[in-house]
Amino acid sequence: MTSIDRVIQKNPNPFDTETFWSGNFWQEKQDPTLTVDSIHTEAIAQIQEILAGVAADNRTRTLLLEGETGSGKTYLLGRLRRLLNDRAFFVYIEPFTASDYIWRHILRYTVDSLLETPEGASESQLIMWLRGLSAFKQRSFLDWFRDERQTFVRKISETYPSGIYNANEFFGVLYELTNPKLAYLACEWLRGDDLDEESLKALRVQSAIETEDAAQKILANFGRISIETKPIVLCFDQLDNVARLPDGNIDLPTLFQVNSIIHHQKLKNFLVVISIITDTWRQNANRLPATDRDRIDRTISLRQINLTQAEALWMSRLEPLHQQANPRPPLLYPLNREVLEEKFPGGKTKPRNTLMLGRQLYQDIKLDLLKNNVFQQAGARPQLKDSSDPLAAFKMVWLKKFRQTQERITRIRQLSSPELIQILAEALSALQAGEIKSRLLPSRTYASYSISFRPNNGDKWIGVAWSEDPNLVKFCNLLKACQETLDRELCQTLYLIRGENIGTPGNVGYKLHQELFAGEEHHHLIPDLSSVQTLATYHSLVNDAYSGELVIGDRTPDLSELENLVRNANILSECTLLQELGVVRSSSPKPAASSPTPAETEAETTSEPVSLEDFLWNRLLNQQCIARQQVVKEAVSQFPQVTVAQANEVLGSMCQQNGKIKILDPQAKLEEQLIYVVTS
What do you get for the CA distance between the two ends of the chain, in Å? Predict the structure, then answer.
């Protein structure tokens, strides 16, 4: 029999902030057992009603989902996706980074989300969407693939004789989605990637979706055709980190203008969900034209939860521990309702506050149990570290986010050029690299591909342009913008970041590239995938910090505190790209290359964000007490190349060499041993 007190000491804190949920619902999977069904049931019922209306008459509707930070808006979006995915296709739109790129941003994330496979399904949303079209109901994919593309386009055009933009090419690309050899390229075209001439020729299309107008119309095509299938739910979230206006305010006017256009242009079968913090909405609503505000069909405000629901949240986290104990303890043990009533005398609270309180109370109880345990065995009170280490907690959150980013971003070109330059700018800001300006290149098309910064104590501006568009004509135009930048002395040193092909000596762009970057004054850097994953990881934390969803230990840090944590943890120092830009110290600088290839870039080995020993140390600091077997199990899960024996060996060595880690009862079997941290 294992007592519940022993179970508590052996296991991780069930309220750990790494288990909190934030961001893209395709990136983080919800555990249904941790959901309390009674929370926000009214909001879910209203959204179901609105979605049913869209499905019934195909008229697009918009709802505003507002709530205070910690009220559970982002969690609710994920819950809706989990509950209603059989009735609609769900799309998560991450914050847009450039206002003049917003339609292409929406299209890109729409296609990316449609490529996701819901839990329990065997096919992506995109394939399910295709199968729902009448053309595919009549004949299978295989039948169509055996037939001619021309026949397919003719047949589906008969179903949609009007209202489809660039119908021949659009339907032709849909046909290629059934072709295993071209499906990948077809997806890239649909998401607006600027494909090279060879890829365009293979798809038999004239050009990429390269303008805002074209992106808007392709999105309309999706809605127009989805009338035959299910509505598409577009979820806009974490809006406090969208592009900024010249006055520094977030550019909500552009987003709501887009929403109005969706209605004006009568794009069909969309449910637009705009999730926003209550204070952000209050501060910005009056800056929006009344005509744009009028396009909101319904506003849903998330209410606080009552203490019975708060109790249920605690119970859902404690239940897995109770299942390990014999005898089973009371449902709330080791917590109790009296603390909730004392802490929230009004009888109301927010889900986030409930979980954070649960974490602190649980950890205090766990430490008291450990002290008694050590006292019984050693006969003296141990000097235990009585609070978790914020840097250790941050590194655990970072590791979780990094793993998610590794799964999501497997190619550098998955992010658009405006996104790539934005995530770089955020990292430079965190590192206090100096004064930073956006939109360096004097080009309407490529300004959002560039930034400049002036290092501290320096008087020269360093320009950075980042483009991963494969199309060499576009690459040449970008280089012309770089040339003009230098001619106008807008910066003194210019870095071009590009992993994609730069062409051959016969190309105009290649020659211009040689003129600009073959010398020592300006540089071409080839990004590696690991650097992009590192920058994207930090970007996701910035999104969380702006939206109030970032929780580190007992705190909800704002952007300034997050930047401090990043610097103190030195977490960006291993980013090769930042090393090459000279903003972090480089141990082995990577030389600039003159002839990069996409294959070389994508084949770059992904490095680990922390070492095995760092992981073990930070995990122990974060938990303060945990079963040896548990932490070894977690280490092996994080580092698949490491065996249980190796992890045990490293842990044993740390205990011998590091006086701050001790094993309770080292003579006991390994599975019975507890590891804990002391102050000295």
Answer: 34
> Is residue 441 within 8 Å of 482, Cβ to Cβ?
yes
Contacts of 357 by beta carbon, 8 Å cutoff, 6+ apart: 339, 340, 343
Q: Count CB-CB contacts under 10 A for residue 138.
A: 10
Secondary structure (3-state) at 121: coil
H runs (alpha helix) in 22-62? 41-57
Is it the case that residue 278 has pLDDT exceeding 50? yes
Cβ(287)–Cβ(78) under 8 Å? no
What is the structure's pLDDT at 680? 56
Confidence of residue 159 (pLDDT cuts 50, 70, 90): confident
CA angle 543, 545, 551 (to 5 degrees): 125
Q: Which residue has the tokens 């040193």?
A: 493
Structure tokens at 545: 């910090």
119: which 2 tokens? 């839990």
Q: Which of 505, 449, 500 lies closest to 471, judged by CA? A: 500
* ω into 442 cis (within 30 of 0): no
Estimate to the nearest angstrom the gap between the alpha carbon of 461 and the chain centroid: 31
Judge whether 190 and 173 are in contact, CB under 8 Å.
Answer: yes
Q: What percent of the chain has pLDDT over 90?
A: 78
Q: Tokens 């969309």 appear where? A: 270
Backbone φ/ψ region at 551: left (φ over 0), alpha (ψ -120 to 50), beta: beta
Question: Helix 612-623 and helix 390-408: axis angle, to 10°?
Answer: 130
- Give the helix/strand (H/E) hosting 499: none
Contacts of range 554-561, beta carbons closer than 8 Å, 24 or more positions apart: 554/356, 554/359, 554/360, 554/387, 554/388, 555/390, 556/69, 556/70, 556/352, 556/356
Cα gap 654→662, rounded to integer Å: 9
Q: Which residues contact 668 (CB under 8 A, 6 or more apart)?
A: none
Q: What are the pLDDT digits (tens) for 440-481?
A: 999 999 999 999 999 998 899 999 999 999 999 999 999 999
Q: Rounded to 10 degrees, what is the CA torsion of 501, 537, 35, 364?
A: 160
**CB-CB contact of 639 with 650 (8 Å):** no
Amino acid (one-letter) located at 615? F
State yes or no: pLDDT of 387 exceeds 80. Answer: no
Closest CA to 467 of 485, 454, 479: 479
- The vertex-539 CA angle with 534 and 544, nearest 5°, equals 130
Please compute the mean of the pLDDT values over residues 396-421 and round it to a whole number: 94
pLDDT at 276: 98
Percent of the chain at pLDDT > 70 equals 93
Average pLDDT, the chain: 91
What pLDDT shows up at residue 162? 85
- Give the amino acid at 377: Q
What average pLDDT does this structure show over 612-619?
93
Give the highest mean pLDDT range of 131-140, 219-228, 485-494, 637-646: 485-494
What does 252-283 look like in DSSP terms, one character per residue? HHHHHHHHHHHHHTT--SEEEEEEEEHHHHHH
Distance between CA atoms of residues 88 and 271, nearest Å: 9
Tell me if residue 454 falls in helix, strand or coil. strand
Mean pLDDT of 117-142: 84
pLDDT band at 372 (very low <50, low <70, confident <90, very high): confident
